[in-house]
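DM between two lab members

TW: hey, do you still have the Sialidase entry open?
JB: yeah, one sec
JB: this one, 514 aa:
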Amino acid sequence: MLLPRVRPRDQIIDPTSSALHFGHVKTTSMPTNGFPMQFGGQLPPRPGIERRLTSPPSGLCYATPASAPSPFEYMINDQASSRRPSTVNGRSRSSSNIHPHSRNTSSSSIDASLLSRFGYPTYRQSPTPQPAARGTPISRTPSAMSHLAPISMPDGQVQSYPQRRRTASPPANPSRLASEIQYDPELDEQTSTALDYLTAPNPTPSLTQRTMEPNRGLNTHFWYDVRNVRPWSKFNVATIAAVPQLLDVLRVPVLKRSLPTPSKVNTNPETPAQLAEICAIHHAVKVNAVLRLTQGEKHIAMRTPKASSGSRQQPEFVSSYQSDAERTIYGDGRGRVVGIIKCYDQWNSGMRSGSVGEKIQYLQGLAHLQRFMREHETRYGFIMTEIELICVRNGGPVDPASNVPLFGYLEVASSVQIGCSGINEDGSPRLTAHLALWWLHMLAKEQPLDGQYYWRMDVGGPAALTRKHHLPRDDWMPKCTLSEKREAKRVRGWVFPDEPLSKRECGRGRRIKS
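TW: and the structure you got?
JB:
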């Protein structure tokens, strides 16, 4: 509708060259004669160019004196060297410019003033696509700022947008890209330390409202599998400081972009699954970030296994190197550190000195962790609740002649409060939950630290009967009842570790009908 219509008086009747109409297919966007002062209202002839789409009526042509110079001679001479002469022939002619209007290039011919005047309001602030220069190297850095290029906007400002982005319209709601565009270089120059990052305050979730008891018929562990509980007294800040230059590494200034800020968490979990999600998006993110700084690109990382219907029960956290390819006897990826999540009303460290029922609950939680530690053949694990973190070392003292662990022997560290943060009055750091998890993963390195146990222990399969390697039970532990013995015999085929190998322990094969 914006194009002018062709008037009858602009049509010059001349039967000499009727096929030289140099306009659009259906309509002519501008008056035909763009040079009235030079050619006197007539266009010069353009021999040799045919238009096959439409055939004007016979007797109609555009005539001009033969002696008049033609401004289209350079176009006629270039047609022989052009690859697509028919594409150039079918273009419209502008009255203010001699050069033809070509649309073969990717750059837009609409300037900012026309875009702001006639464009749809949503697209008035859209960037104009610019052709990328050939030979320009593309940065592969993970930073989002390396993919931004400055463009000129209609109001004269310069805005950045990604070169590979194809959508011209800006999003209606603020997105992650919008926050990255408002980038302040001064904030990127601020530094911090990994020690301050690990000792920062943590969100303290409330107690879980609905605690679900696991199905006892599906568990292959029982509370009396834990036979010896000893304190892990050397799990403290003094042991960390005794390692040469370990705390100095945590005090090295680093950029804050290397220490990501975890997302906000729901501090009112209703189910154990929501509690595990809090630990995954906050605690695991911070611990993995510091492990990357201290161990390098190939570092141990906390991960959450993907649970599928019908699969074996897995711990909530399994930590290993990305290059680890070892598997358990059940086909799961082997972890160097395993962790489980418990609700505080279901399990806590204070239950050890409680009633008989509370002691059984306390031992049941440790037996649950010991089962995963023996399946993964690792010495290190932890139990995390809404309030505290408990780190555990399995297997007992290392025997130089054999790496077979003691069955039911657990060393339990002191409780670390989740809300603990900051430093002590003497300037030494406090043992926070993140610092404790980081130190636990440092113990599970490929190269063990001096004076610490190696992470791996030789448990083997059920046929190895390494469960027979154990010590007498502690006196403070309750005695199991007859119903609990019957349940263990029915589920796994054995009650106490001295018993012989059972068929249920090795797994029952599918019966074949004859």
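TW: got it. The chain has a mean pLDDT of 74. Residues 189-201+219-492 form one domain.
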